[in-house]
Amino acid sequence: MTELEVVDTNVGPLDTVEFAPDGRVEYDNGHLTAVYPTEAATEKYALAEYEVTPPTDTVDMPDDSVLLSITGGTLVAAVPIDAYGDGA
């Protein structure tokens, strides 16, 4: 039987959270739930919001970011903390 780790927390922009990106990750209006095997490798992320505005309709995100939601013109992602340069 596999033992699972559950992260269930409220998060906002620039909050940090640690989870395994290969597990099941759900995000709804500031509430993040991640479920993954206990022995899975985890990563530390910061929550980021990006605005998608015409005419480009593109967003540049750091490698290994996890897309959490897209609502209207706002994209919410978990960005690897190392992408912020100092590993905050």
Largest sheet composition: 4 strands, antiparallel
* Gross geometry: elongated
Output mean pLDDT: 91
Query: Which series of helices and strands comes N to C?
Result: EEEEEEE
> How many β-strands, per DSSP?
7
Task: Give me the number of helical elements.
Answer: 0
Derived structural class: mainly beta
The helix content is: under 10%
Low-confidence stretches: none
- Residue share in β-strands: over 45%
**Major beta sheet, strand line-up:** 2-5-7-6
Distance between the termini: 36 Å
Radius of gyration (CA) equals: 14 Å
3D structure, described in words:
0% of the residues lie in helices and 51% in strands. The protein has no helices and 7 strands. β3 and β4 (31-37) form a beta hairpin. The model has no long low-confidence stretch (mean pLDDT 91). By secondary structure, the protein is mostly beta strands.
Strand and helix map with partners:
Blueprint: E1 4-10, E2 16-19, E3 24-28, E4 31-37, E5 43-51, E6 66-71, E7 74-80
Antiparallel strand pairs: 1-4, 2-5, 3-4, 5-7, 6-7
Q: What is this entry, summarized?
A:
With 88 residues, the protein is mostly beta strands.
Could you list some keywords that capture this structure?
88 residues; mainly beta; four-stranded antiparallel sheet; elongated
